[in-house]
UniProtKB/TrEMBL annotation:
UniProt key word Zinc-finger: no
Annotated InterPro entries: FliE (IPR001624)
Family as reported in the entry's similarity comment: Belongs to the FliE family.
Descriptive protein name: Flagellar hook-basal body complex protein FliE
Record has RNA-binding as a keyword: no
Superkingdom of origin: Bacteria
GO cellular component entries: bacterial-type flagellum basal body
């Protein structure tokens, strides 16, 4: 029973984070997010993280930024964002190749 309640807790957390629930399986066209808009938002977030990293690094070099910890945190966030984007790209390419190699 404990593993089932753990799965339900995990599902509830995912629903809260993503904003989706079981009752939203049938969405209208005005409420539905397209894949393109989700991808655009993710790339904008990645770009924002990289710009913050660049600003922090330039600030450390020029001496205007004195908080090394903040710069290192921004660097780690940008690194994780970039690695995630690369992994998503790899999975998309892998899925495309799988579909391409299907025989009909």
């Amino acid at each position: 029973m404990n593993s089932i309640s753990g799965l339900e807790n995990y599902q509830n957390q995912l629903s809260r984070i993503t904003g989706l629930s079981d009752g939203q399986n049938q969405t209208s066209k005005t409420d539905a997010k397209s894949f393109g808009s989700v991808l655009e938002k993710a790339i904008a977030g990645l770009n924002s993280n990289m710009n913050t990293l660049d600003q922090g690094t330039n600030g450390m070099i020029s001496g205007t930024e004195s908080d090394l910890g903040k710069v290192m945190i921004n660097m780690t966030e940008a690194q994780l964002s970039l690695e995630t984007a690369v992994q998503v790209r790899n999975k998309v390419i892998e899925a495309y190749n799988d579909i391409k190699n299907m025989q009909f």
